[in-house]
Amino acid sequence: MKKRKLIRIMYAVTPVMLVLLLALNIFTILKVKAIEDGAGIDDTEDVAQENDVQIGGDYIIRATTQISDAYKSGDTSKLSDADKETLDMAKRVLDEIITDGMSDYEKELAVYEWMCANIGFDDGSLEVIPNVGSEVDNPHGVLKYHQAVCVGYATTFRMFMQMMDIECMVVHDSYLGHSWDLVKLDGQWYHTDVYSDAPGGNFSHFNINDTEMMNMQEWNTDFFPAAEGYKYNYAYMNRVGCDDIYTVPGQLRAAIDAQKGVVSFDFGKEVSDDTYSILETIMNQVENAVTSGSDKGVGITWSWLQAGDDNVFCVYLNYEKETEDPDSNVDIDAETQQKIDEAVNKAFGNIGSDDVIIGGVSEKTVIS
Amino acid sequence: MKRIICVICALAMCLSVCACGEKTQKIDMYELQKSMVSADKSLPEMKISGSWDENAEKAFSYISDMEYNKIHGFFLAYAADGMAYELAVVQLKDKSDAGEMEDSLNEHVQTRVRMYKTYEPEQVQRAENAVVKTVGDCVLLIMSDSPENAETAFK
């Protein structure tokens, strides 16, 4: 009798246990799947939004309209202390560089030039484990400490534009590794990447269009507006006519001597294949001469800009600051040099200061 | 009979529990990084981080998104000036995670390549030539001009 009762209980309990086990399994599978799905979303996938986007894993693009709105309205009551300080610093910059009657383009140019000259790139951001100063990704830290990563440049530039009622957006690339600005001038959008041009400011990333930017970056073109303008491209605005292609090297020489950032040549509506080839050869030779000659440290890049019907050949120059070799800059008078020669000769054999050592053998230098 | 079956079952259970997970010999990551970094003379000044550090888990997250509890230990040596020089060794608790680890290190390398394309184009080639490989229960990442030196030191 007892056995039968036990069997009846088993019959009742076993199916319930099985159902519970099945439910537990399904729950576990769903939970694991949810965790796996969620893991990828955090900070690795691109998003169709301008703000609250994480770049390089550490830097966040944050809106600063509360500061620009306060600047325009004069009401700072809703600002935090840090925002108030940012506003004061930004005001001082605008008071210094913006004058009455400036066009939007001139205002943008003034901010670009000020930022190139006054904000430094924080090299520590390139390290595998970034070693950056404080607040390098927002206008407060950028204006206070004058060090920035790309997000800092882009958000500070946008804040200045918005303070002056110029439409501006911060764009991020599809890999969440870089950010820059889109600026609207006379109804057309342009890309401006101050970070990539700083510190020299050679205008190679100033008011460029989608075609040019796409040579360097990928971004969500469905979300961000198309930039098709060229009217306010710096190279286009400062182009010169070119009737004789062989004058290009001479003009580049003059530009390097004058430490200019960009030289641009208008080749008109039609450019022959010969012109393309000759120009490419000229530029390769100029680059060789520049990198191996006395202009070492000058960087040179070139590209064609299709501006309406015009074909503009743009050459961008940048000048690395030469780091002084402490050994090469020693000022020695002739008498001391002779003493040094004698001492060294005495110790190491007959080697004069005009000699060079090649493979351990002394050879007299030939000065032509 | 029932008792014998019970004992056999218990023994089988003990054996199966003991069989779970292969015991690996834990490597002294601090010493390993010293030998590998010093073996590669092409490396510039390097910063070092590893499982002996207080913030090891955070440091590890910069090179891999793998769960930290899946590894025995790691070290990461990277150029102090941000250029494309890196050495990393990750020792896994379970060898079967090596594929996942390699994938995440390769993804890290691709992220670095993209970054250098934007900021330091001269570094791109070295970053692209980075070596990621599995040796035993360890996964190695070597980004250097002469990766063979560090690899030899590892062996």
Care to describe what's here?
The complex is a heterodimer of chains A (368) and B (155). Chain A is an alpha+beta fold and 368 residues long. Chain A has 12 helices and 13 strands. In chain A, the strands form 5 sheets. Chain A has a 4-stranded mixed beta sheet with strand order 8-9-11-10, covered by helices on one side. In chain A, helix 2 packs across helix 3, helix 2 packs parallel to helix 6 and helix 4 packs antiparallel against helix 6. The C terminus of chain A is likely disordered. Chain B has 155 residues and is an alpha+beta fold. Helix content of chain B is 45%, strand content 21%. Chain B contains 6 helices and 5 strands. In chain B, helix 2 packs antiparallel against helix 6. The N and C termini of chain B lie far apart (54 Å). The chains are: A alpha+beta (368), B alpha+beta (155). The interface between A and B is medium-sized, with 18 and 21 residues.
Topology of this structure?
The complex is a heterodimer of chains A (368) and B (155).
Chain A: H1 2-44, E1 53-55, E2 59-61, H2 65-73, H3 81-97, H4 104-118, E3 120-121, H5 139-145, E4 147-148, H6 150-163, E5 168-172, E6 179-185, E7 188-192, H7 194-197, H8 210-213, H9 234-237, E8 240-241, H10 248-257, E9 262-266, H11 273-292, E10 298-307, E11 310-319, H12 334-348, E12 355-358, E13 361-364
Parallel strand pairs in A: 3-4, 8-9
Antiparallel strand pairs in A: 1-2, 5-6, 6-7, 9-11, 10-11, 12-13
Helix pairs in contact in A: 2-3, 2-6, 3-5, 4-6, 5-6
Chain B: H1 2-19, H2 29-39, E1 46-50, H3 56-61, E2 71-79, E3 86-92, H4 98-119, H5 124-128, E4 131-135, E5 138-143, H6 147-154
Antiparallel strand pairs in B: 1-2, 2-3, 3-5, 4-5
Helix pairs in contact in B: 2-6
Class inferred from helices and paired strands of chain A: alpha+beta
Query: What percent of the residues of chain B sit in helical stretches (DSSP H or I)?
Result: 40-55%
Shape of chain A: extended
Q: Oligomeric state of the chains? A: heterodimer
Q: From the alpha-carbon coordinates, what is the Rg of chain A to the nearest angstrom? A: 31 Å
The unreliable regions of chain B are: 17-22
Largest sheet descriptor of chain A: 4 strands, mixed
- Please outline the major beta sheet of chain B: 5 strands, antiparallel
Beta strand % of chain A? 15-25%
Written as H for each helix and E for each strand, in order along the chain, the element string of chain A is HEEHHHEHEHEEEHHHEHEHEEHEE
Give the end-to-end Cα distance of chain B, rounded to a whole number of Å. Answer: 54 Å
Q: Care to count the β-strands of chain A? A: 13
